Amino acid sequence: MNGQELFELAIKHIYGDGVPEDNDLAFKLLMQAHDLGHIEATYNLGICFHYGFGTSSDLGKAFALYLESAKAGYGKGMELTGRFYNRGIYVEQDSKAAEYWLTKAVESCDPDAVEEAKKELAFKEKCEQQENLL
What we know:
- By secondary structure, the protein is mostly helical.
- The chain folds into two domains: about 1-55, no CATH class; about 75-134, no CATH class.
- About 75% of the residues lie in helices and about 0% in strands.
C-alpha cells in the first residue's frame, strides 16, 4: 500500500467507517503512512500523540509532528504549531513564532486551519492587551 491508501484506511479505523473502530491499528497505519512521507498522516499522528489515541500521550512528539507537517505546508499543522507557541504548550511561549505560524495558517487557505488560526490570533491579541493593562 502507498501512503495515501494507508492514511485512508487509518481514518476509516478511527471513525469505524466500514471497518471496526480501532485506534491502535489506526496509529500503526498512520505511522507507516508517515514513514512514506504522507504529510496529512504526519499531522494526524501528531493528534494521536497529543490526545493518546492508540498510543500514550506525548506532547513533545505531538509538537514535533505538527511542526514537521507545518514546515511541509500543511495548514492545520501550521495552526497547531502556532497555538503551541502562543500558549506555551510543551514549548516556551514565543509570541513571534506563534504569529508567524498562525499567519501562515491563515494564508494556507485550508478552511479549518484559517478559522482556528484567526481565533487563536484573536486570543493572542486579547492576552497581549490584558498584559499591557497590568
